[in-house]
Amino acid sequence: MAYKLSAELEGHTSDVRGLASFGSDMLVSVSRDNTGRIWKRTGPHAFSEESVLVGHDKYVSSVVVIPDDAYPQGLIATGSMDTTVCVWDAANPGAPVQRLRGHSGNVCALAVSRDGRTLVSGSWDKTAKVWVNGECVHTLREHEHAVWGVLVLDDGSVVTGSADKLIRIWRDGQLVHTLTGHTDCVRALAATSGGFASASNDGSVREWTVDGLVRELHGHTSLVYAVAAANGVLVSGGEDRSMRVWRDGTLQNTVLVPSMSVWAVAVLSNGDIACGTNDGRIRVFTQDDARVADASTQKQFEEKNAVFALSAKAMGDVSLGNLPGPERLKQRGDCDQVVMIKDGSQVTAHQWNVERNEWIQVGHVVDAAAQTQKQVFDGREYDYVFDVDIQEGAPALKLPYNATENPYSAAQRFLERNELSLEYLDTVADFITKNSDGVQLGAQQPHIDPFTGGSRYVPSQSQAGGSVAADPFTGNRYVPAQTTAAYSPPSEYIINRQGNSSAIVKKLAEFNTELAQSDPHLAVSAEDMQRVSELENAVSEDACSVLLRLVQAWPVDRRFPALDLLRLAVATSPLPLTCHTSDGKSLVALVIEASNLDTVFATDSTLSKTDEINAMMGVRVLANMFAHPQGTDMAWAARSRILSALDGSWSRATNKNLVTSLSNLYFNLAIAAAQKSDDDEGLNILSASSRFLEHTDNADAQLRLVNVFGVLASKFQLCKDSARVLGDETIVILGIMGKSEAVKAAAKSVGAFLS
Predict the structure, then answer these.
(1) Is 584 or 13 the better-scoring residue by pLDDT?
(2) pLDDT per residue over 372-384, tens digit each?
(3) Is the pLDDT assigned to residue 306 strictly greater than 90?
(4) Is the pLDDT confidence value at 480 over 50?
(5) What is the mean pLDDT of the segment spanning 134-158?
(6) Which residues, in sequence order, are CB contacts of 175 under 8 Å at separation 6+?
(7) Hey, which bits of 11-144 come out as E strands?
(8) How far is it, in rounded angstroms, from Cα 374 to Cα 385?
(9) CA distances from 416 to 83, 142, 180, 579, 726 (A)
């Protein structure tokens, strides 16, 4: 029996990323609009929005309902890109009753034990965490990439699925078994009566026991994002705009929706099924005529399906010239079968409806721009150049896109070129996809994962023979061994030890004399000045304490000599690293605040000479911290604050020495990322450096930043793949037009390595 639309729930303003059911009458959804929503049944085919869960400040990615005797309607756990898990009382969800902290990346998966006592979370930080009574009792660390799926079995075992293509089974926090078979990222897990099921980017759903594979389920024609099971039914959803319903290993039903991505699925206890999609809607489908939506609602749904755009270009081996004509629709089809029909210049997709004994149009097939329709932007040809309105009254921004590239790569390039927040990445990528090709149905063809990777693949075929790229934001992907150009990245930190300490001390003494006249309480004693002057010979704790006091307390236009002496002291000895101010600030915090790095690059006003000098001195102190292992650890621990402070500096800084100092600090951070094997942070540094590189014509800065690309790309495949997107064009240009021969040589070497 076919599934029919029962209800369509509208309220979210962005993609619905997670969905959970509680009985037959409650659904909980979470979205990239930073909210969760509780929906209650108000009639046989109607739900209403009862509550909005507001507590996360970034995308909400995952959700699970927790049974609890103390809460009749249960508890709700939501995971977010803000790295936290919020726990809510479903009956009184005004604010979270608990917030769980511990992950350092997006919490993209949640699961709970049948008794509600154990909660498991999975994250982009490559770990899963086991929580009992709000406390983390185990952190599961063996996966190499993001943990996208988690599950708690009835015996207490925990199952995790990852972008490393592996499924791991854990007991009491210890790894006991690893299951292999998927050929791409494992995206979701669900408990079944005999074990569990997994969904993967390889286009398959697989059923397992803890001992191994039971069977593979093939039917999806693209990435499979979600899986849920209950009442003997297994439901999956993916990038082919479908939910697939399986029973005993057999595909029973295919439910198509007028939305590209089925991100989440759920099974209600009455047998109805639901999905959350990239258009912000939740749709419920039923086999019970009593819960079928009214005729008007069904008609609107069918009309949306009928006009949904499908890609002809992405149909792989399907030859549009050989498609059957309308006469094919006079023949019967199999349950949920999809056929392509050519009628003159129009191509449409149709699905067989068994109960109505007729074909129903479910899509309109369109061609991508022909070669003769290419559009030119910045001297290059593209399949599309979209106009994007960012602000009312402001000129539209141009968004170029080629149909063969990952929409997320084009979106990233657009945002960085226009200095827009990467928070808009998903929105722009979705805009590209919706306004270019739509998706393909029913054929074996390449697809792009719009959330975890740029991998192009053919479902049910090995990827070993092709090139696979990586999504620059969510995790590395498998890349076959390749022969690459030789490149030897630099590995030594850049430390600035040059300086005339006698002249600096003299300037400091001059300022101290002036302050003794105007602000005596700020001036230091002759003894303290003597201690500072002795820095020429040796670094002492007393001298460092004086410098920190001057850096913190002196007027901003008098601080630079103290900052400069601190730079030299840090380069010479690790002693300043251990000093703290009277109010307990660390060296990093003090330097950022004293040199106004937190604010100087965040305004639109022109930088004053004092701003530039202090910023340059502060940046030099931070860069020189890498002269010692203790300083490297300290600076690396504060990397997020440092990168945040420097954000946008490349577009504000005009002083040549300041620009060079900034590039040195980015270079040192890249070396540290490579040494500490932190690919995610390496990507953050790479992203900022690419924008810097596009803005600067400073030869020294160009050289440092080109080598940032080389250092990170040499260490991390994720960064290498992303470097091709972020800076390939710029580096090629610098190989020809760099500001020095050293820049040209470095750019050619790095460019050859990236290619």
Answers:
(1) 13
(2) 456 677 666 677 8
(3) no
(4) no
(5) 94
(6) 140, 142, 168, 169
(7) 16-22, 26-31, 35-43, 46-54, 60-68, 71-80, 85-89, 98-100, 107-112, 118-123, 128-132, 135-140
(8) 9
(9) 24, 34, 38, 38, 9
Return the residue matching tokens 């489908």.
285
Contact assessment for residue 618 and residue 587, using Cβ atoms and an 8 Å cutoff: no
Structure tokens given for 633: 């650890």
Q: What pLDDT is attached to residue 452?
A: 36
Q: Are 276 and 19 in contact (CB under 8 A)?
A: yes
Instruction: Return the bridge partners of 243, or none.
Output: 237, 255
**Percent of the chain topping pLDDT 70:** 83
Pick 118 or 241 by higher pLDDT: 118
Q: How confident is the model at residue 401 (pLDDT cuts 50, 70, 90)?
A: confident
Which strand (E) or helix (H) includes residue 222? none
Q: How many other C-beta atoms can be found within 10 angstroms of the C-beta atom of residue 221?
A: 25
Across 119-123, 455-459, 570-574, 733-737, least confident range:
455-459
422 C-beta neighbours (distance < 10 Å), count: 15
Residues listed for the chain: 755
Taking the C-alpha atoms of residue 395 and residue 146, their distance in angstroms, rounded to an integer, is 39
* Residue 411 confidence (pLDDT): 75
The values of phi and psi at residue 122, to 5°, are -120, 150
pTM above 0.85, yes or no: no
Q: Which residues, at least 6 apart from 537, have a Cβ–Cβ distance to it below 8 Å? A: none
Q: Report which listed range, 394-403, 559-568, 662-671, is most confident.
A: 662-671
φ and ψ at residue 643, rounded to 5 degrees: -65, -40
Q: Name the CA radius of gyration of the chain, rounded.
A: 29
Tell me which amino acid residue 51 is.
S
162 three-class SS: strand
pLDDT of residue 229: 95
Query: Where are the alpha helices (H) located in 393-500, listed in sequence order?
Result: 407-417, 425-434
Burial 330-349 (b: 16+ CB within 10 A, else e): eeebeebebbbbbeeeebbb
- Half-sphere exposure in the Cβ direction for 622 (13 Å, CA): 37
Query: In terms of Cα–Cα distance, which of 207, 289, 211 is closest to 247?
Result: 207
Per-residue confidence (pLDDT) for residue 260, from 0 to 100: 76
d(CA 559, CA 690): 32
Give the H/E segment covering residue 588: helix 587-594
Cβ atoms of 190 and 179 closer than 8 Å: no
The answer to whether 634 and 587 have CB atoms below 8 angstroms apart is yes
How far apart CA 589 and CA 593 sit, in angstroms, is 6
| pLDDT score recorded for residue 223 | 85
